[in-house]
Amino acid sequence: MAKRHEEWAAEHGRVYGDADEKQRRFEIFSDNVRYIDSFNMERKYNYKLGINQFADMTNEEFVATHTGSRPRNGPRSMTEFQYARVSDLPSSIDWRITGAVTDVKNQGSCGSCWAFSAIAAVEGIVQIKTGQLISLSEQELVDCDYTDNGCNWGWVDKTFDFIARFGGVSSEAEYPFTGAKDNCNITKLSQNKAASIGGYEYVPSNDETMLMKAVANQPVSVNIDGSGSPFQHYSGGIFDGPCNTTMNHYVTVVGYGEDERGTKYWIAKNSWGATWGENGYIRFKKDVEAKEGVCGLAMYPSYPTF
Length: 306
What we know:
Layout: H1 2-11, H2 19-42, E1 47-49, H3 59-66, E2 93-94, H4 113-130, H5 138-144, H6 156-165, H7 186-190, E3 199-202, H8 208-215, E4 220-224, H9 229-232, E5 234-239, E6 249-258, E7 264-269, E8 281-285, E9 302-305
Parallel strand pairs: 5-8
Antiparallel strand pairs: 1-5, 2-6, 3-9, 4-6, 6-7, 7-8
């Protein structure tokens, strides 16, 4: 196990402050590897776990540093849902293939999943409407969006509203991500917008059919429970729990489909880099019995309007 840890640390560039810290991380790594191996040997689920960049972190550390939303209190206010009467939906769609999704990004230990999810959804609708795929700035939102909370937490509907009210958002090239909240660059906030939106709409809660109607037309931000050890170590397959509906993380649904065994799934873009999951993505089981969807993904979906 010690050699396994050394090789993993070299691969992920992990350097420890002293021998005590290295020993502590080795023990956590060992516990996680044993858990991963045991989970995979059971073959109880339709997905597998793997030794990723979070393998030397406890689950508590992982949740504290790599999520970034909070549960909602009570129902949301209603908005128009422009796709309510859409019919003849495609049996599958993948906005990555159509060119509406940028490369997977990495929020690091800045709890800004809200910004990454919102930006992925904005990048998608802008490309769909204009034909231009532009990587947009999460950092501008982390620094300047006073309605959210930087590297602590946020809600994407407030983010969409902020982007609309301030006339758009800068490009990533113009305002690159640093992994920490800094003072807002007022000059960049007030000019040189790379893309803009008109506002946002909610998908009706607890209805995967309505979510499908929205995703068939554009990428959609969803709030989920991303706190469990299986989610931390997910490496591939169709994820169907265990998880609950205590929201603490945002991802962006960029498609849906069905595997060779007839299991339907959602395709979600995460913001933990390409070494997590399926090259940075996760597939959630679709059309489950629980109306909230797997990990609550159908509870609070929203998307930007153009």
